[in-house]
Write a structure and sequence with these properties.
- The complex is a heterodimer of chains A (244) and B (262).
- Chain A folds into two domains: 6-122 and 216-243, no CATH class; 132-200, no CATH class.
- In chain A, 76% of the residues lie in helices and 4% in strands.
- Chain A is built from eight helices and two strands.
- Chain B has 262 residues and is an all-alpha fold.
- In chain B, 74% of the residues lie in helices and 0% in strands.
- Chain B contains 13 helices and no strands.
- Chain B has helices at residues 15-38, 40-43, 50-70, 76-79, 82-97, 108-117, 119-133, 144-163, 167-190, 197-208, 213-242, 245-248, 252-261.
- Classes of the chains: A mainly alpha (244), B mainly alpha (262).
- At the A-B interface, helix 1, helix 3, helix 4, helix 6 and helix 7 of A face helix 3, helix 4, helix 5, helix 7 and helix 10 of B.
- Chain B: The chain crosses the membrane at residues 20-38, 50-71, 77-105, 112-136, 142-162, 169-191, 230-247.
- Chain B: This is Glycosyl transferase family 9.
- Chain B: Keywords: Membrane, Transmembrane, Transmembrane helix.
- Chain A: Keywords: Cell membrane, Membrane, Transmembrane, Transmembrane helix.
Chain lengths: 244, 262
């Protein structure tokens, strides 16, 4: 997926996610997850994809288990019962189906995200004619996440050297305040300086901007992405009409 | 806040910038009404597919329309603080989401931008937060409309809250009720519950009492969201007030609050 134009990858990922959501078949969700794992293996990121997906999905699965299976009132095949707890086969089936549906949705987007060249995405956004502000915010946020984490670690270390904080809730609250205020202050100060630089350069300039590096899609990508999107939309419409 | 130094300031309020946010808000409201009025009995099964698609697509499309209308109006000085808010959301939300606390604390950055720069910037930060964070955690994507509502409400009460900080948790509590009602259908229909273990336990408890899925998720959201937003509004207001006056007064809402106080 990394070699695809960012929008082609997004079209494929969005189509797969929407079809799995609309079809709501456990085997289709499972097939999409398996396909994502195969693609991840080809790119050598299986472990990263599995780890990230597990971190994202574990709380969701636990929630679905608690909501649908552990306190199920309606199922007839009871596995465990005691007090308010009533674990049933039907509840487990519902939770499993929902879990797989969410897993397909999350895995396909995570694969896209992990294989995405984020700088190519920003350039593609800039070329595509969406407001320049959107491209700026995406680029700035992606650059700021690691920078802010680094700055937070540096501030924490500096405050620890000063002996800020301590044990107990009051100490932790003081430590959090002594981290948050300089972090937000420094981030806003930087933002203010950046805004002057942007204004000096007349941001956002008109729609015609010179691109020093362009991201281009290969010849087949645009028609194939269009076909995939149209097929997915038609499939979703048919599936939803059938479900009603 | 200073205007562009080289280019004349644009008026920015075109028909498009007025129409798109209205269309977006109408689409979000229509999606909510459709889900709540037509679907409650089927929701109990938890596995029907069309409400999931409608909740996902309707809310997301509405939020994107809102963003398309609002974003071109924002000046560069407001634009540069939005990524700061987004990063705060991502860093705090990712951390709290993995703990067993029935709060989210993923909107402090959105509220902060709303309190500094107003309704439009707050709503845009909410939507952008969901779009950009979905690169790290795709499950937040359908909650874009709820996040926009929080940012919009933060901007609406900004001047009031910055004049009297004790009103921040009260405003946050009320905003949380509205956010809970807007976001509950997404949690119920797209995810069949909630996106966290602790909040899932609360939904499970209501289900055990015989409530439908949507009713259980809405009740859980009405417990978690007001408390969560009360904390977010209070923390964001205190952070704004803790900023040096020189920096604080560069932003429109603190400047208005200070002018009202003087």
């Amino acid at each position: 997926m990394a070699r695809l134009h960012p929008f082609t990858g997004l079209a494929f990922a969005g189509s797969a996610a929407l079809v799995s959501l609309a079809a709501d078949r456990w085997w289709l969700s499972l097939a999409i997850v398996a396909a994502c794992l195969v693609l991840a293996r080809r790119r050598g990121i299986t472990r990263r994809l599995a780890g990230t997906a597990a971190a994202v999905l574990a709380p969701l699965w636990l929630s679905q288990l608690l909501v649908h299976a552990v306190f199920d009132r309606t199922g007839s095949h009871v596995l465990i019962a005691g007090g308010p707890v009533r674990l049933t086969v039907e509840g487990l089936t519902t939770a499993g189906g929902l879990g797989l549906r969410v897993a397909a949705f999350a895995t396909v987007f995570l694969l896209y995200s992990l294989t995405l060249d984020r700088y190519a995405l920003v350039r593609a956004l800039d070329q595509s004619g969406v407001p320049a502000q959107f491209g700026y915010i995406v680029a700035a946020t992606l650059a700021l996440v690691p920078a802010t984490l680094e700055r937070a670690a540096a501030i924490s270390q500096a405050q620890a050297v000063r002996g800020v904080g301590g044990r107990g809730p009051a100490g932790r609250l003081a430590a959090a305040r002594m981290l948050a205020v300089p972090l937000v202050l420094a981030s806003l100060q930087d933002a203010t300086e950046r805004s002057v630089s942007l204004q000096l350069r007349g941001f956002p300039a008109g729609p015609k901007r010179t691109q020093y590096v362009t991201v281009s899609a290969r010849g087949w990508e645009r028609p194939v992405a269009a076909v995939v999107l149209c097929t997915a939309a038609a499939l979703v419409a048919v599936l939803l009409a059938g479900a009603r | 806040m200073s205007n562009n130094l080289l280019l004349p300031a644009r008026s920015g309020t075109t028909l498009r910038s007025r129409l798109l946010p209205l269309l977006g808000a109408a689409l979000i409201a229509a999606t909510y009404a459709m889900l709540v009025l037509l679907q409650p009995s089927e929701a109990a099964a938890g596995l029907t597919s069309w409400p999931a698609v409608v909740a996902f697509a309707g809310y997301l499309a509405g939020a994107v329309l809102l963003l398309a209308g609002v974003l071109p109006q924002l000046p560069a000085s407001v634009l540069t603080i939005i990524p700061v808010g987004l990063v705060l959301n991502i860093v705090l939300g990712q951390f709290v989401g993995s703990t067993l606390v029935p709060l989210y604390l993923d909107s402090i950055g959105t509220v902060l931008v709303g309190l500094l720069a107003g309704r439009a910037a707050g709503a845009a930060t909410g939507v952008l937060g969901s779009l950009v964070w979905s690169l790290f955690n795709p499950t937040v994507l359908p909650f874009a409309a709820g996040a926009a509502v929080v940012g919009f409400l933060a901007g609406s009460v900004g001047t009031l809250v910055l004049r009297r900080a004790w009103q921040a948790p009260v405003a946050g509590f009320l905003a949380g009720i509205i956010a809970a009602v807007v976001s509950a259908p997404v949690a119920a229909f797209v995810y069949g519950g909630t996106s966290g273990a602790a909040t899932g336990a609360i939904v499970g408890m209501f289900r055990a009492m015989g409530d439908s899925l949507l009713a259980s998720v809405t009740k859980q959201a009405l417990i978690s969201d007001p408390a969560d937003k009360a904390v977010a509004f209070l923390v964001a207001a205190l952070l704004v007030l803790a900023l040096p006056r020189r920096i604080r007064l560069q932003f429109p809402l603190p400047r208005r609050a200070a002018a009202d106080r003087d």
